[in-house]
Amino acid sequence: MGVKIGNIDIGEFPLLLAPMEDVSDPPFRALCKQHGADVLYTEFISSEGLIRDAAKSKMKLDIYDFERPIGIQIFGYDIESMRLATKICEKANPEFIDINYGCPVKKVANKGAGAGILKDIPKMVKMTKEIVNSTNLPVTVKTRLGWDENTKYIVDVAERLQDVGIQALSIHGRTRKQMYKGEADWTLIGDVKNNQRMHIPIFGNGDISNAENVAEVKNKYGVDGVMIGRAAIGNPWIFNEIKHFLKTGSHLAKPVIADRVNACKQHLKHSIEWKGKILGIAEMKRHYSNYFKGIPHFKDYRIKIITSECTEEIFELLDEIKLKF
User: What's 60's DSSP letter?
Assistant: First the structure.
């Protein structure tokens, strides 16, 4: 039997695509799903933006049937706003609602949202309870080990969140103070998973960059699945590579240049369809160097692609790259 969030079966050892601001939009999610991601999340969405009907926040509620199962992730500091935002998210019909208690960036955390709430665990528990009680959908949480080295209370926090009704917990193995620096500490994630009181799925996140990493944390810490973030950017193949390695102990062939170009073209096409030409082209600019990482003498092409505003020209350049490299 597979791992379950509520009564949704998400597979034997699910691989989750982390919600990443300005990355985990529908075009990117589509690629990751196609290449083996089991569970997807939207980018995190501001509860204040949702209740004020902000266009950018509402657009992030777009989900498509091929993406299921998918969670809508929300963040905020005001309990009532988070409760109301949950009701709005319900109408978009996701499989579950995920609460972001992990985002470390200043503009979020300094307001007491995201990882900022780790300074006020009673409020974190109270907010979670309100959200769980306000929806029939399963509620999940993504968080960090604690605010800093001296407040790594995650084992206790996990129990308290489970007690108020969350159905799964994803833990990033760093404190807020660490941001994304230093190494992720998986020992505490393991402690949560192996706590006899815990019965919900525990997913680990942080420093997963290849299949061997996943095999190691699976065997060593017993987590129910892993959440992959930065390692999937420009590399949606990582999900199937991990699955193949866990199953066979051998590596799938790495994507060749044609695979990279085709993925990049699909990403661009969906980006334009979803956001319109101007925004679709502009927002793809951050992705090209990730798709073609490690290719020697690529700089000239990168400059040409990111300075072009013409769809046909960009596609022609991508075809040229396929032939040249």
Answer: T
Catalytic member of 89, 103, 264, 310:
103
CA 100/CA 108 separation, integer angstroms: 10
Best CA proximity match to 28, nearest among 62, 73, 74, 76: 62
15: left (phi over 0), alpha (psi -120 to 50) or beta: beta
192 in the same domain as 298: no
- pLDDT-flagged residues of the chain (< 70): none
Cβ(75)–Cβ(100) below 8 Å: yes
Q: How far is CA 112 from CA 13, 46, 93, in A?
A: 33, 13, 28
Same domain, residue pair 181 and 315: no
Beta carbons within 8 Å of 260's beta carbon, 6+ residues apart: 291, 292
Return the ∠ at Cα 163 (arms to 202 and 169), rounded to 5°: 20
* Domain of residue 301, residue span: 257-324
Q: Identify the pLDDT of residue 324.
A: 86
Looking at residue 318, its pLDDT comes to 96
Quote the pLDDT of residue 297: 86
- Single residue among 221, 248, 275 that ends a domain in this structure: 248
Confidence (pLDDT) at 38: 98
Q: Is 32 one of the catalytic residues?
A: no
So what's the pLDDT on residue 1? 76
Q: What is the CATH number of the domain that holds 57?
A: 3.20.20.70
Predicted pLDDT at 44: 95
Q: pLDDT of 179-224, one tens digit each?
A: 999 999 999 999 999 999 999 999 999 999 999 999 999 999 999 9
Q: What is the CATH number of the domain that holds 275?
A: 1.10.1200
